[in-house]
Structures
1.
Amino acid sequence: MKSHRARSPQTHPVFCTIVPPHLLDQVSIHGDDLFSRPARRTLELDATQRTRRQITTVRNGLLAAARSAADVDPAERKPQRTIYDAEHTQQLPGTKVREEGAAPSQDASVNRAYAALGATFELYLSVYDRWSIDGAGLPLTASVHYGEEYNNAFWDGEQMVFGDGDGEVFRDFTLPVDVIGHELTHGVTQYTANLEYLGQSGALNESVSDVFGSLIKQHSLGQSTQEADWLIGSGLFTDQVEGEALRSMKAPGTAYDDDVLGKDPQPATMDDYVNTSSDNGGVHINSGIPNHAFYKLAVDLGGNAWERAGQIWYDTLTGGTLKADTDFAAFAKATAEAAKSRYGDGSDELEAVRKCWSEVGVEGA
């Protein structure tokens, strides 16, 4: 139904992190240096990596565009994972510590990264017939133990990078599988719709990563829509934090409420849409609206969210109809068209798509 040929991702190179800048900004101004110092250092490293990201994307895109999944026997479409240890430096990728098929490491961070790369690869291949994140077998590379007390994880256009956290606010970033799935899905978006990382298209970019990050977790755990927690980054905060996750798709705005972090600012509907110039126009904030729409769709359809609900979102992302600056209304319309194309006019799936967008105040579906 859809072509899986890799699409060049050079147009809108971005640097995408799991922890939003507004949250780190809040921690960085805390009076206790124990909290603020790691946050300031993380923001500085993120700024450096953002510059590096602009440079590396073109080379990566040209390599991917030269390959096609159609040229490879399906039986040979296997993951190619390599994990490196940055050894608390900022030099990437670092020292190779585990590669595809090798025995587990004594380092739990290495093994968690390896397993989560595999879980992400497995969902995209077995459910959506996508061979790695570029659709053409791109090797999956990750570096653990990046920097000192680095409070983030990111996809830089070529690989995944994980910090260990500061131990005060954040734990090791390899702990939640959905964090890894989220960041790798930025790569899928990079090679498909290539949504501009600004305003509503940027919020959609973030939301798509949350959606598939959650689906990767649910798929790996065998959870139904009712069993899933619909949290992004659950277990990432230490016990000192008053919060359960970075974001909640089920109830945006309720993930945390803490003296150091502040309160989760995500809206659930367009009534509370946040107009801001920070965070590229609130890409990590307003993503709560399409997140909540997907949650409503998945629960309405029931069963396993990666099946019908996830298929509609995947078809939308990869169908070639989205513009780089697609807004919420245009994305909603595209999801309705995807549901109609796959399941038929008048189908339960199409009606559920229209309903979920209406309930969060987005017109167009």
Note: The mean pLDDT is 88.
2.
Amino acid sequence: MSEKVLLDYGSGGRASQRLVSELFLGQLGNDELNRLNDAAELQVSGRIAMSTDSFTVDPIFFPGGDIGSLAVHGTINDVAMMGAIPRYMTCGYIIEEGFAMDDLERIVTSMGKAAKKAGVSVVSGDTKVVPKGAVDKIFINTTGVGDIIVDPAPAGDRARPGDAILLSGTMGDHGLAILGTREGLEFEAAVQSDSAGLNHLLVKLVQELPEVHVLRDPTRGGLATTMNEIAGSSNVCCELNETDIPVRPEVSGGCSFLGLDPLYLANEGKFLCILPEEHAEKALEIMRADELGRDACRVGTVTDTNPGKVVMVTQLGGKRLLNMLEGEQLPRIC
């Protein structure tokens, strides 16, 4: 193959076949994908969860990950938030003519490693190459499918007054890592994306505690926006304690310097868990036993005082509304 991605690689002819067989099947291949049918034959049982997403992150390589691993993590996490075991993925690549083949190989290799670690098979895919300037480097579209293993499944409209609100770790890491890399900023301490596959931890959590009401990953719009979505869907008030929300010192310092609020920055390896009060300590024990949940903590309580609102109890003991993000704080974050 050439050093650059050519339009020929999206033609469907011999060049396309070489790209698929030498790169994609080499890194993502499995019994089903290797058949190269027009669609995949899948084995699923009962209720399934399915999610689709598109990844346009800029830059495509960043501290803690790249667009390839991010595409896998983002997809399987969305499926797992439904109390499901992710089983299969599809991926479609839209690649700019002239894109470096070494970079494409690096991205696909990263996807393969992330999928293998998650125990997910990439069973179908598509590649399009567009003229230079028609797309910025590379965009990736994915779909994920998994078996729901609890009934009822966790959902954004199931939060109830009295529930505990738990958080698996620190806020704002991914958003600040992307911004810092994009703008060439140097912080006093290195800031890395938290991009990670959460499915193994989430499956263990719902298997041991099927009483979990809500699981959500606070990606675009961050914690504040996600909490507002849950409060609105469940018609409850989510009351958060500012002093309990974990933010790394380097992220807090970077946000202060840039005038950003870490509660509105995207996260790609953290999740919210809302469940009955009596199960909160057990949930924290399960989360903290996993590397991806070692900083898990309780950050609030669901109430019925201001339905549809998110209330922040400040460090001084006062209260203020925590609104949903207005506009786009940081575009192309995932």
Note: The chain has a mean pLDDT of 94.
